[in-house]
UniProtKB/TrEMBL annotation:
Family: Belongs to the type-B carboxylesterase/lipase family.
Name listed for the protein in its UniProt record: Carboxylesterase type B domain-containing protein
InterPro entries assigned to the protein according to its UniProt record, in alphabetical order: AB_hydrolase_fold (IPR029058), CarbesteraseB (IPR002018), Type-B_Carboxylest/Lipase (IPR050309)
Domain named Carboxylesterase type B: residues: 24-238
Pfam family membership, one: COesterase
Species in which this protein is naturally found: Sparus aurata (Gilthead sea bream)
Amino acid sequence: MAANVSGCGHENTQKLADCMKNLDFDTFKHELLTVPFMTGANDDEGGWLLPGVSVNGMDRESVQNIISLFNPDVRQTLPFISGLIAEEYIGNGEDRVKNRDGFTEMLGDLTFTIPAIKTANAHRGSAPVYLYEFQYTPKFLQERRPSFVGSEHGDELILVVGFCFTTSQIKLIGECSEEEMQLSRTVMSYWANFARTGSPNGDGLAHWPKYGAEEHYLEIRLKEQVAGQSLKKDRFVFMTQTLPEKVQQQKAKKHSEL
C-alpha cells in the first residue's frame, strides 16, 4: 500500500526505502488514516515490568523514583509531575500493596494502553476502528507468576497465533485447557476476519462494535466476549488533559515568581 500511495514502486526494496525517505509524510498521511485499524491492550500491561522484589508491595518513594525515569522533563517540574501521577494512582502511599498495583497500572497505561486509545481516537473519524482489552492469561503462565499479576503485555499472542494447537517445531511449556483452546479459536477468528474483510465480526462470534464517538470496545475474557465503553476513561483524561494542564499551571506560577 505504501508503495502504491507514494508512487515509489515496489520492484526493489532498497529503492523503495530510499525513495520513501525523501517523501513528505503528508503525501500518504491521509491514506493511512483510511485503512481499517485494530488495536488494544491487556488488562495488566505493566505487570512484566514489575520488580521481582515487589511481591510484598512497594513504598511511595520507590514508586515516585521509578515514575521519574519515565518522564523526560529533567527540570524543576519533574518532582511535581511524579507527585501528581503518584497521587492519581496510589493515593497517600500508605498501603504497600495498593502502591504496587497502582504502579503497574500506571506503567501499563503510560506505555501501552493510553497510546493505543490515542491512536484509535486519531483513526476513528476516517476508517473503521476496533479496540479491545484482553483480560485472560493462559493457565500455564498464571502458574509461573504471582497471583496478583493479570494479563501482561504479549500474553494474548499465545492464543492469537494458535500455539495451543502446535504439535511440532514450536511447543508450549504447558498445555491449554479445552476452554483456552476455544478462546484461541475465537480470537483467531476475530483477527483473521479483520485481516480478510476489515471487520473482525463473523458467524458465531460475539458482536465487536466499532470504536467511535461512543468509545465502544470489546472485553476479551476466557468464557465470553463482552462489549464495553470508554476504556480507562478516567485515567485517559488524567494523563492527556488534567496532568498537562496542571503542569502548565505550575510552570506559569514559577515564571510569575521570577
